[in-house]
Amino acid sequence: YDRLIWAKDYKKIVIYGASGSLYGWDCEKLNEAFGDEYVIINLGMNANMNASIVFEGITPFLNDDDILLWACEPGNKVLGDTRFDYLQTWWYTGAYLDLYKNIDISNYQNLFECLAEYNKQKTRNHTSYKFADVTRENIYGDNIKERPNSYYACGQYRFDYFTGFDYSYMSSLIDKLNAKGVKVLFTYATYVEDEVDDSELEFYKEKLLENFDITIISDYKKCRYPITYFWNSEWHLTNEGSTLRTLQVIEDLKNYFNEVN
Q1: What's the pTM?
Q2: Do the beta carbons of residue 156 and residue 195 sit within 8 Å?
Q3: Do residues 239 and 23 make contact, with C-beta atoms less than 8 angstroms apart?
């Protein structure tokens, strides 16, 4: 967030996703590819963080021709559900309350109930929600701790997050970004190869485009990797896996730039 504020008047590529982005990008590679033109920022957080809060809160800092690269895992919170059911949003934004001056809180449910619980846990010095170790993050926002392969289970993937959830407010936020000239691009999270069928990802793609005015720049078939590139879950990549994923998305971005130019 501090880097985003600093870079307000520069062209930016801002990545937003859950922990698969926190533990899934090598932004130094992105900087090597696009740093002459764009400031690179990784806002990877947590799957129970309300993405709509982030999109709305950072809109004033995004300008014409900036890129918001949405790289989320499937899930109702990272897709923009406005209900506060978990404390993660407060744990990640509690030090940046000025973010909320950009947010119409009337569009969110249980926000203050979660804030009250967040403050209770703070007074008890509760630490279970402190997911990110900021001492191990680089200037872009990547977590750069050593992440050897230690994940051997099958991925537990779900894509049925479109029935019973209302993403109309998130859609309106994306429309506002588009109206500002911000390019809202989507790339898939990474999946363990052979654990997700094409039919599931086709369904996911269809629903994304049905709900949001976004440009999908990646082929989901290229977002599946051997399990040896996963660190400690079906979403978190090893350091090597993060670099491979980043190099693939660099190619996707270059293809996008060539098409629009």
Answers
A1: 0.95
A2: no
A3: no
